[in-house]
Specification:
By secondary structure, the protein is α+β, with helices and mostly antiparallel strands. The chain folds into two domains: 32 residues, no CATH class; 104 residues, no CATH class. It is 45% helix and 11% strand. It contains five helices and five strands; from the N terminus they run E-E-E-E-E-H-H-H-H-H. It has a three-stranded mixed beta sheet, with no helix packed on it. The chain has a two-stranded antiparallel sheet with strand order 4-5. Strand 2 and strand 3 form a beta hairpin. Helix 1 packs antiparallel against helix 2, helix 1 runs parallel beside helix 3 and helix 2 runs antiparallel to helix 3. The protein is elongated, with a radius of gyration of 20 Å.
Amino acid sequence: MLFNADKSKCIISRPREVVNRANCVSDVSFIICGNVIGNVESWPHLGHVITNNGSDKLDIMSRRNKFIGQVNNVICWFNKLDCYTKTRLLKSYCCSFCGCELWNLSILDVQTLCVAWRQALRRIWKLPYNCYTAILERLSGTITIFDTLCKRSMNIVQN
């Protein structure tokens, strides 16, 4: 079996609160096939951004940016369709947040994803930026993205 050292990275997980830095592993080097594996603080793997401190921040921001790009594509390519159809496309094409069940939903970065969701609905329905969230939910027939994330997390806990 051959390994490509250029495609492999090493992430050293550290405790969140380190009292004595001398006890932590700092410089570890692995060698595969004569090539040194680089150490990184974060790295994308299977669509998720894994960090050395276990934070979900980079993964959530990456998913948010991907979501915004997908929303822009839906609005650009399907601009002539009615708002109901565009909302269904938004829900089916743009909301594949696989792995969101494991996110810490109490951090502020989840709220930036929720803001992007509301902005997307406002753009699809051509509503002003200060339109109330309750109006968006009723008009589009959707629940908030935060409620969707909570529902997915509860399904994991229940199963």
